[in-house]
Amino acid sequence: MSILNQNLLTLDFWQDKVTYGKKTVPIGTIGCAALNITDEQIAALTTLCQPLNEIILMLGTGNVDVSVFPTAEKALWKIVRFLQKTEPFSFLDLATDEKELHRLFDEEHIENIVSYIKALQEIGAAASFDEKYSHAVGVLKLIQRMSQLGNTLKIFKGGMIDFAHKLHDSKRTPDGYAAAFAKQFPKDETLSPENSMWMQLTNTTIQYVSSVMPEKGIPQLVKRMHYVSFVGMFRSDLFEGLCVGHAPRKCPICGKWFLTTDARQTKYCGGLAPGDKRGRTCRQIGNLKGREQRELADDHPIKAIYTRRMNTITQYLRRGTLDKQIADVMKRLAKDKLERAIFDYEYAKGRYETEMSQDALFIEATNKT
Questions:
Q1: How far apart are alpha carbons 79 and 92 in whole angstroms?
Q2: pLDDT tens for each residue of 46-66
Q3: Is 158 inside any structural domain?
Q4: Model-level pTM?
Q5: How many domains does the chain have?
């Protein structure tokens, strides 16, 4: 079945491109897209993963509860539908219908899975190589990969969002990204397990294979990497992107992360601007607003509020009454709100000043850290 043949945790790297599923994109696109999966979506995925984790627990204990399978089937279908419409997972060929997924958990196949779990307890890993359990092995491998989605996305964003903001403000060259990386992560040449930022990369398997790249049409030698977790795959793609000068940047109009592939100060993404009745892109809106932003006087109320707040944060830092990490986040939030106020008249006249107060910024920054 096609759902069992998906390389969910495999990337092909070739020069400055990466292939995931059947789509080839600039390196860094996979990790950048994962940054845009919202906290609400991650929370929903974590809930959906619970019945899948119960099946994984059976593998370890051998205690089988067949009543879990119908719930797991429904959860897996909802997860697949989410993946089909969400980048970077939509790059995969997940054209699965509900009937196909149901066949994975029909009575015959559930019996096969139960028998396989019991065989694991009796003869160990050798059961995995028995052809009669091939369906069970495929289904459980799929469940194992899907069951980690919510938690792995939470871990990835928890470790990478702050770093992405630092990249956003860094010099947009490989040297600038390397400097930002050195400040963010401790040097750990031994890849020790105590360094959690590296743990998910240590079990990666690398192959060199001949593969036909879409833009070439002829076989090319590519580096194929297989991962044990999505968080490792996302981090790897993001870091590989930095090595060739690709980095995420946050669009001030829609608030989404997009990938820049050169040192130009590309400020806006090419996606549709939210709420624009004429269907223009953020880049089109941004270009129109650029002149207005440049001509905004320093004493304009919008900029004056921002300037006062930055001065206050700096004063608190000098007095030692504000933690530097919190202060850095407050400054970043203030800058984001200034940019939004420039482009969003309703926001500028409404919540902007309230959200830019010292107390409001402090609370928001504390929650984010």
A1: 14
A2: 999 999 999 888 877 778 888
A3: no
A4: 0.74
A5: 1
